[in-house]
Write a structure and sequence with these properties.
- This protein has 424 residues and is mainly alpha-helical.
Length: 424
C-alpha cells in the first residue's frame, strides 16, 4: 500500500503510473468494504474488489525489488531498509488504532455506569486486549484469531512488514541462491494455499501471511526475470496503449469471474501482466495514470487504505443510532454479512449507491488529512530518530575508550591518514 520512490536503470525516480494505479486500488478496497456492509447494490461489480489487495502485494514486491534489491547487500543496507519500512508503515498504523481504543474505552465507561446496551462487552472479541497487543506488534495475521481485529485492513500491513524481513534476509546469502530461494518461497506459499481448506483468495487473519508472501515474491521475480527483457522492447504508442487496455480487461475479467472460488488463488499470477505492462509506461492509459488526479490518489493510497475502515465503522454505528432515534429502519439483519450480521439498508439501491459515493468522498478528505498530519510527519520523525541512532553508533564505533577518556581512532593513525577521516 505504500508509495516508494525508487532509482531505476531507465533514469526514472518512480513508477508514476503504478503509483496512480495504487490509488485506484485503495479506493476499490474501500468501495468493496462499503458494499459488504450495505445491501450489495453494486455487488456484481464489487464482489471481486478484495483481490485489489493481491495486486498491492505483487506491486509492492516489484517496486521494492527494483528500488532496494542491490542496496541491501551493502553494509547496513538491511537495517536501513527495515527502518524505512517501519517509518513508512507504523505511524499511520498506530494512529488508526486510537479511534477504536477511544470507542472501546467509552463503551467500558458506559458499561461501568450501567448504561451499556451492546451485546459484545468492551475490550473483548475482535477488540480484545490480546488482539490489541498483536496489532501493536503487527503479528495479528498469523492465525491466532478467528476474525479481523481492531483496524481490520492492517492485517495486510503486518504481513507486509514481516515479508519485508524475509525479503531482506533472502538477499543476504550467496547471490547464486537468491533467485532459487525466492522461487521456493512462492512455490511453498502456493502449495500451502492449495492444501489448506480455503474456498477463495479472501484470506486475511488466518492465512494472510501466505497470501502476502506469494504475491510479494512473484512481484520480486517479475522485476528480476521478466521486466528487464520486456523493457528492451520499448513499447510505445498504439501498441502499448492496446496492451494496457487488454491487460486491464484481463485482470478485471478474472476478478469478476473467479473471486468466489478457488480459481482466485491464481490472482497474483494473473496480475503480473498489468503490472509489467504499466511499469513500461508506454501507452495512453499510463499517461492518464501519470496525471495530477491519479498522482494525488497515489500519494494518498496508504492513508485511504488505513482510514476507510474506521470511517465505515463510525458511519455504520451512526446509522444504527440515528435510525433508532428517529424511528427509521436504516439497518437490518442479514446473516453472514455486514457488521455482526447487520447491514445498511437505506430503502433503495440508488440511495445506498449515493451513500457509497458520499462515503468515498469522506474517505478522500480524511486520507488527505491523515497523509499531511500523520503519514508524512511520522515518517520523517522515525527517520530522524533512526539517523540519529545510526550516527551515534557510527561515532561510537569510530572511537576507542581508554579509562575515562575517549580517543578518536583517527588520532592513533598516521597523520596523512587521520587528516582525511571525517566522523559524522
Amino acid at each position: 500500500m505504500d508509495g516508494i520512490g525508487v532509482h531505476t536503470t531507465a533514469g526514472k525516480d518512480r513508477f508514476v503510473a503504478l503509483d496512480g494505479m495504487r490509488g485506484c486500488l485503495a479506493l476499490t478496497v474501500a468501495a468493496y468494504h462499503f458494499d459488504e456492509i450495505g445491501v450489495r447494490s453494486v455487488d456484481d461489480l464489487m464482489h471481486g474488489g478484495y483481490l485489489a489487495v493481491d495486486f498491492f502485494f505483487v506491486l509492492s514486491g516489484f517496486v521494492i525489488a527494483h528500488g532496494y534489491g542491490t542496496r541491501l547487500t551493502r553494509s547496513g543496507g538491511v537495517a536501513d531498509f527495515l527502518a524505512r519500512r517501519v517509518a513508512r508503515l507504523y505511524p499511520v498504523h498506530l494512529v488508526m488504532i486510537l479511534p477504536y481504543l477511544a470507542i472501546e474505552t467509552m463503551r467500558l465507561v458506559a458499561t461501568m455506569a450501567g448504561s451499556g446496551m451492546e451485546p459484545r462487552p468492551p475490550f473483548t472479541g475482535w477488540a480484545g486486549l490480546p488482539a490489541l497487543f498483536a496489532n501493536l506488534a503487527l503479528v495479528q495475521s498469523f492465525g491466532q484469531f478467528d476474525v479481523l481485529t481492531w483496524n481490520g485492513p492492517s492485517w495486510s500491513i503486518g504481513c507486509e512488514l514481516w515479508t519485508y524481513v524475509i525479503f531482506a534476509l533472502s538477499t543476504c546469502g550467496p547471490a547464486r541462491w537468491r533467485l532459487p530461494g525466492q522461487v521456493a518461497i512462492v512455490g511453498v506459499g502456493f502449495a500451502a494455499l492449495l492444501a489448506l481448506p480455503v474456498t477463495d483468495m479472501n484470506v486475511s487473519f488466518d492465512y494472510g501471511i501466505l497470501r502476502c508472501l506469494v504475491g510479494f515474491f512473484l512481484g520480486v521475480l517479475a522485476r528480476e526475470l521478466i521486466f528487464p527483457a520486456v523493457s528492451r522492447l520499448r513499447l510505445v504508442g498504439t501498441v502499448a496503449g492496446g496492451l494496457e487496455v487488454a491487460a486491464l480487461i484481463a485482470a478485471l475479467g478474472f476478478a469478476l469471474a473467479t473471486s468466489a472460488d478457488r480459481r482466485s488463488l491464481a490472482a497474483p499470477l494473473v496480475f503480473l501482466l498489468p503490472l509489467v505492462v504499466f511499469a513500461l509506461e508506454g501507452g495512453f492509459v499510463s499517461r492518464m495514470l501519470r496525471g495530477p488526479l491519479f498522482a494525488w490518489l497515489g500519494r494518498l493510497s496508504y492513508s485511504i487504505y488505513m482510514v476507510h475502515a474506521v470511517l465505515l465503522y463510525l458511519a455504520f454505528t451512526a446509522a444504527k443510532k440515528l435510525g433508532g432515534h428517529f424511528g427509521m429502519e436504516l439497518t437490518r439483519r442479514m446473516d453472514g454479512a455486514g457488521f455482526g450480521g447487520v447491514v445498511l439498508d437505506l430503502g433503495s439501491p440508488w440511495a445506498t449507491a449515493f451513500a457509497g459515493l458520499a462515503f468515498l468522498a469522506m474517505v478522500l478528505a480524511a486520507a488527505e488529512l491523515l497523509h499531511r498530519r500523520i503519514e508524512v510527519p511520522g515518517r520523517r520523525l522515525v527517520m530522524r530518530l533512526w539517523d540519529r541512532l545510526r550516527r551515534d553508533r557510527e561515532i561510537g564505533l569510530g572511537r576507542e575508550t581508554t579509562g575515562l577518556v575517549e580517543i578518536p581512532v583517527a588520532a592513533t593513525l598516521p597523520s596523512n591518514i587521520g587528516d582525511h577521516r571525517r566522523h559524522p
